[in-house]
Write a structure and sequence with these properties.
Belongs to the zinc-containing alcohol dehydrogenase family. This protein is α/β, with parallel strands linked by helices. It has twelve helices and 15 strands. Strand 11, helix 9 and strand 12 form a beta-alpha-beta unit.
Amino acid sequence: MLAYTYIEKGCFELLDKPKPKLQSEYDAIVKVTLSSICTSDLHIKHGSVPRAVPGITVGHEMVGVVERVGSAVKKVKPGDRVTVNVETFCGTCFFCRNGFVNNCTDPDGGWALGCRIDGGQAEYVRVPHANQGLNKIPPSVTDEQALFVGDVLATGFWAARISDIKQEDTVLIIGAGPTGICTLLCALLKKPRRIIVCEKDNSRLEFVQKHYPEVLVTKPEAVQEVIKKHSEHGGADVVLEVAGTKDTFRLAWQCARPNATVTIVALYDEAQSLPLPDMYGKNLTFKTGGVDGCECDVILKLIAEGRIDTLPLITHTYPLARIDEAYDLFENKRDQVMKVAVRSSVGL
């Protein structure tokens, strides 16, 4: 089968690999119908994910059809259309029982797919702990509608949940890339008083204005002035940092009011520092970490009900055989790209 493979820092290649087999009674084999490229894939390519294993098939954002299941898999059966969770988790350890599935202590726990074990930018993928990692797609929901459920949309849902957004809040979202938009969609579900999106790229600002006209937009150089004008207490009640740069990390705490919550959603290429003397007296609460993607069934229900729509994010579609072109487009942010869908060649 075709599989996009991490060779070494700076190099991915489309290779012919053996089709995966069941290795455990809890495994499932999924025929991938649609996958997508994530910024985290670029982090692997750039060498920013030390735990990523050379030789693995990349990709952790996908949907497909179950082909085979192990004897202990009861949640899905062959023929089911499913989303694949970005994380594999056992469901029984301390962290899983408390909903902290990103920290699952199983050897395959946490973000493994496309990082430590073969992922889904391929024709087939083996999914460990399939009872937890696969969710059936409702008949009314298309593959395209469900594509981001297991990763970028799960991230936005998790970020909005842990931020404890209240209806009287002013919420600032820094970054209007795909994860930022998914975070925006999930923050809108909380019905805060207002949401402000900060983004430096004009085309992404236009994207927000076109699809979410009720949201205020601003560029980084004006964000502090805009926040002061549209908040009651000198800053945002909740800040979600989804851009992942040194400058946006600084903006996040600068734009927060005293005693606000700052949620770090982004993954950074380098370490960031908290200038505690400058922040003294703001009494901020920082929330950070990897997504705990254990509410995919809830997200799928919201999509089926028409309350979440990520279809506008899919701006380009490529076949798996041309995935090099798709990566080049996505990495260089050409042609106003937001997200690229990659169609598997299986059955096409």
